[in-house]
Every structure is written in C-alpha cells, then in structure tokens.
Amino acid sequence: xxxxxxxxxxxxxxxxxxxxxxxxxxxxxxxxxxxxxxxxxxxxxxxxxxxxxxxxxxxxxxxxxxxxxxxxxxxxxxxxxxxxxxxxxxxxxxxxxxxxxxxxxxxxxxxxxxxxxxxxxxxxxxxxxxxxxxxxxxxxxxxxxxxxxxxxxxxxxxxxxxxxxxxxxxxxxxxxxxxxxxxxxxxxxxxxxxxxxxxxxxxxxxxxxxxxxxxxxxxxxxxxxxxxxxxxxxxxxxxxxxxxxxxxxxxxxxxxxxxxxxxxxxxxxxxxxxxxxxxxxxxxxxxxxxxxxxxxxxxxxxxxxxxxxxxxxxxxxxxxxxxxxxxxxxxxxxxxxxxxxxxxxxxxxxxxxxxxxxxxxxxxxxxxxxxxxxxxxxxxxxxxxxxxxxxxxxxxxxxxxxxxxxxxxxxxxxxxxxxxxxxxxxxxxxxxxxxxxxxxxxxxxxxxxxxxxxxxxxxxxxxxxxxxxxxxxxxxxxxxxxxxxxxx
Length: 488
Ligand SMILES: [Zn+2]
Prior knowledge:
Largest sheet: 8 strands, mixed
CATH topology of the largest domain: Aminopeptidase
Number of domains: 2
Oligomer: single chain
Distance between the termini: 41 Å
Number of strands: 20
Bound molecules: zinc ion
Structural class: alpha/beta
CATH architecture of the largest domain: 3-Layer(aba) Sandwich
Strand order of the largest sheet: 8-9-11-10-14-18-15-16
CATH class of the largest domain: Alpha Beta
Number of helices: 15
Shape: elongated
Strand content: 15-25%
C-alpha cells in the first residue's frame, strides 16, 4: 500500500522523484516562494505552468522536466486567490481534486502545498490523506503503490510540527478504509475489533462494549431492535479517554450502521444503486477523532460511543407498528424501519449522557438523504440547542475544512411531526417536506432533553462518502469542536 509521510523541509524530500506536485494560490505562484528550493528546473517550469492553471475543475497542469532535474514530471495545481465566505480558506476540496491521480503511482512522488498560515496545516494534511485510500481489492502486482512524501510550507518557512500531521493523516486514512470496506468484510464484530485495535496503544484509554442481549439488559432496546436479526449482533462500543485531572467530560456518539437494507421498510427498487456500506461513516469519524484527541493529550475526558448494527431483513427483524421503550424511558411507535439511525443514536446518547454526565455531546451520523438537499455534498448539516455551540461548530468547519451549515432549531415545529396515537412518538415524520433533516435531529434530542447538556448534531450523509469513496469527513470538525470546548 502507498505510504504517506510528512517531512519538515525541502532537504528531506526524496532526491529522485517520479512526480512532484506543487499546490499554491495563483498569486503565490507568481510571487515564487512555493517553488523555492525545488531546483532551478522546477522553479522555472512551475512558474510558467501556473500562469495557465485554472483554479477549480481541471486545476492541474503538468510537464516533463529536463534530464538532471529532481523530478521527472512536474504537476502544478492552482488554488483560488479569493473565496466565498462558506468555504474553508485552506481549499481542501480543491487540493484533493487537483492532486488526485498524480500521487502514489509508479515510483516515488511528493506533494508540496503552500499555505497562508501554519494553522491550515492539519486541514491540508487531511486533504492529502483522503485521496490516498488504503482499501483496494483490485488485482495487481503492487507496482502502482509508490510512496508519497508531503511538505507543507508558508511564506515564512516550512511547517516543522509534522508529528501531529502524521497522526491526522493516519487517522483520516483509517476512517476512509473502514467506510470503504463492504459489509462482508466489516460486520459489527469486525468493526469492534478494528476500533479496539486502533486505540490499543493510546494512553489513559479503556474500552467496553455491550453486545447483543447486554443491550437489552442496559435498556438500549432501540439499538438492539435495529440490529437484532443480523448475523453479527448489534453493539455499543464505548471508548473512554480519561486523563488525570480532566477538566470536563465531552461525549461523542457515532452512527455505525455497517449496512442498511432499510429493514422491512425495504429501500425501494430504483434506489438499488445506492451504496449503504457508508452508513457507519459517523462512527468511523468519531473513532478517528477520538484517536487524534487522545494522541494529542487533550485535557478533557472524551467518551466516544460507536453504535453498531446492521439493519437487516430476517425472521426477527423489527417491524412497523412495533412499540419500543427506549433507554430514555420514552416509547416509540415504529412507522419506518429505514429511520433506524436515530433509534441507534438516541439510545447511545441517552445511555452515555446518563452514565457519564458530559457537559457537551456531539453526535455524527449519515442520518438523512435530505441532508444533501438541504446543504449539499460538501457541507454537513448541523443542529444545536445552543447558539454559541452552533457558532463554534461553524467556525470549526471553516478551520478544519469540514464545512458545515446550521439547520433550524425549533422543537415546537418538529415535535408534532412525530405524533403517535399509541406511543410518546413515532420514529419517522408525517410530512417529509417539512424540514426533514432538522426533524430527524429533534428525534435524537428528544431522548436527552432532560439532561441539560449542550448538544451538536452533525448529519454528514453527503460529505462522508463522495464518488464511491469514504472521505474522512467529520474528523476535523469534531476534533476542532472538542478543542474549542476544552478551552472553555
Ligand atoms: Zn435507514
């Protein structure tokens, strides 16, 4: 597999490269510093190529360099000089689109990215990592898996703090690999094993899991119902990072549906081309964010709960009309077995909220297709009961490159959508044309509203999975939110 390694100076780049990719704003190419130290040929050719490189779309321009140059091939990727206000100044999406396909081929390749400030380094590292997927079942001889070296720089010099960038890159690629794995390779048993292995060497971390009937005993009847007929049992995997003298506790909840058939409310025929292996993208992002926070030694306790299940069809599948008593004590009449993610999330959030007493709780989920209608492929939809938390998340999205956009927070308008004749609520809305994604968020909230905690919901159905690949979306957003919360 292609490796990705960060270096802290031009001198540390490999002496002979098959491909050198340089990424910078057009204005910075014109100024010259992004190409500095890369050799006379690369500097001369790069500056000329950048004149013709068009930011966005087909951003890259390439040429072969003359004999004796450090690289055989030079690729120039131009970024925009100015941006609209709902896009991250790091331009991670543009970086990814520009470099995709140019790195990791035959021989050694390197990418040099020119940043406006060192604060953009982690977002840029994520952008590189997410275009170098680890999951690959193509039959080949391995010759196309050359190693990649990355260097980030600003006009003031090369970024020297590369240890955290390596953590970011590795955790992002882990997240992408898990999302890319089909359910035959990643059922709930394997997902738990992957999570345990990924945190095994982290300091101050313990892991517990509630599997199968243990969920019933603990009162998580919603999560249990969703996954009970699958071959691998549903489970809640709880990762607990508890450093000495932690100043607060923050909870992270991830939806981990390893596959979603829709259940008895089967996904309809013309949606068969829909891939559903990505329905654990929230849990994968939470796992990777947890790894980064623990590895970075953050001073708060972080409890991450991965709610794993397969929404399968079988003799013991839960049905429309069933009434479930959730962990919160509230009852839910099922009117759509394909609205399963909110049952898993609500139970996990209630359990963690009551057991650990966090001051803030963040949930991340590929929850609604309607998220794509509301905020698109590049921006997750967020919902919060706290205006300051919402503003903090919006900024974290711009800083981390994991864009997000708030949806309305009006429980008064959402609650009537779930009205049931026989239970406290139904699990799916009466009118799908009435702010469906915000309504789904309200359902989760309804099971923790008595706890008085600050809550942020991230619906990442679109951005977590693009062009049939996991993206690692959500890790940076969650990490930046927790860091901001930890600062108080
Ligand atoms: Zn579903």
